[in-house]
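INTERNAL AUDIT FORM
Audit reference: QA-55
Scope: verify that the stored structure record matches its stored sequence.
Auditor: D.O.
Record contents follow.
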Amino acid sequence: MNAAAAPNTALERYYQFHSRIYDATRWSFLFGREEVLRRAARVVQPRRILEVGCGTGRNLVSLRRRFPEAEITGVDLSEPMLAIAAGKMRDERTTLLRRSYSAPVHESGAGFDLVLFSYALSMFNPGWEQAMDAAHADLAEGGSIAVVDFSHSAFGGFRRWMGMNHVRMEGHLWPRLAQKFVPLLDERLPAYLGVWQYGMFIGRKQD
């Protein structure tokens, strides 16, 4: 869960505090982060990678390990989160940008071979549709998008509690991803005996 949609003061305040405990706590409920990268590596060997909502850089470290020669760009709105990421990613082939993702990162030249959203799109409210459109524009021809995120919960109280933490859990992401990109992986999986579902999606750019 990260801040990278349109500017949102409440969300930035949220991560002002949570940046201090993010890595210590999120392993307990942000499932599938390593799995979606493992599955993505089966279908793409990217030279240029973008992670939207890179947060503290946990996934950037995994991406660097899997793709040591790639140019990696991480985008996030939260300055405290990016400061932690900068401490983890000191190599010359990594770029960190503090900005929203309502428009593409690259303006000309080669696009990205892989765009990753890890528990980010469900927090872009509003903005998730624009972020998908920006990712499509940012991808090179034949490039891939990889998404892991919350999907849905049958428990209304849990959905409301997640909403208080800026997360929308209505299963709304997956139909538009499948419409916008050619699906290579589209799965929903249970968490904590079905209290909620999370999803993984990998798709290829289609014009």
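Auditor finding: record pair retrieved intact. The two ends are 29 Å apart (CA to CA).
Action required: none
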